[in-house]
Amino acid sequence: IAESLSGLRELPGRCQAITTDDWNVAHASPKMLLDVAGSPQRAEFVLQAIGKQTRAGQAGVIPMNARVRAGAAKRPKIWCVLAVSNRDDDATLARYGRLLETMADHCVLTCEPGCKERFLSLSHSVLDGVEECAIIRLVADQERAVSWAAHAANPHDTVVVLGGVDRGSAQTQRQDLQRLQDLMRGLQRDVSGVVAKPSPQPLKLYQPDS
């Protein structure tokens, strides 16, 4: 098991970068990362790592026009879409709220697909840990929440999707991960505005009658 794991470049659902082979799409859409999270500690680790990468990338960029004044270029921002669930108690939810407010530039709160009936009460517990409640956008449907963040972000921003995966069994976890991966890849092409090229038609061979 250890040998097999050492050969993996990344673990599905663990700071997983959702990428595309289309260069035009990649450069015209925000970066997207997926993490199953599962706890405030894990969410904090992910947001800290992304924050460091964002700041390091910004420091390494040299403006092409030297006359551009400092701060004129837009700073890359972090858009966090956090999905809470019925498994989270009030203290955990409030801590999530504090993390969203202090570690992300834009916050979208949603829930796992099976928890929509309790979304309002779960949201209230999250907002208990927030000082300025207006900064957090509430969207009950997880796919709509991810879509809104992807369309609102700029190409140099990062959209990180935390949680929203049913970890009740290995099968449900794989299904939810695949659902989110497919959604995020589709959104990359959608927000980029790049039209997929049609597949070339196969050539027909001319065979004269004998």
Structural commentary:
Helix 3 runs parallel beside helix 4. The protein is of the alpha/beta class. Helices cover 42% and strands 14% of the residues. Strands 1-2-6-3-4-5 form a 6-stranded mixed beta sheet, sandwiched between helices. The radius of gyration is 20 Å and the shape is globular.
Q: Name the shape in a single word.
A: globular
Strand order of the largest sheet: 1-2-6-3-4-5
Distinct helical segment count: 7
The chain-level structural class is: alpha/beta
**In terms of per-residue confidence, which ranges show pLDDT below 50 for 5 or more consecutive residues?**
60-72
DSSP E strands, number:
6
Largest sheet: 6 strands, mixed
Whole-Å distance between the termini?
Answer: 62 Å
Mean pLDDT: 84
> What proportion of the residues form beta strands (DSSP E)?
5-15%
* Rounded Rg: 20 Å
What is the helical fraction, as a range of percent?
A: 40-55%
SSE pattern, N- to C-terminal? HEHEHEHEHEHEH
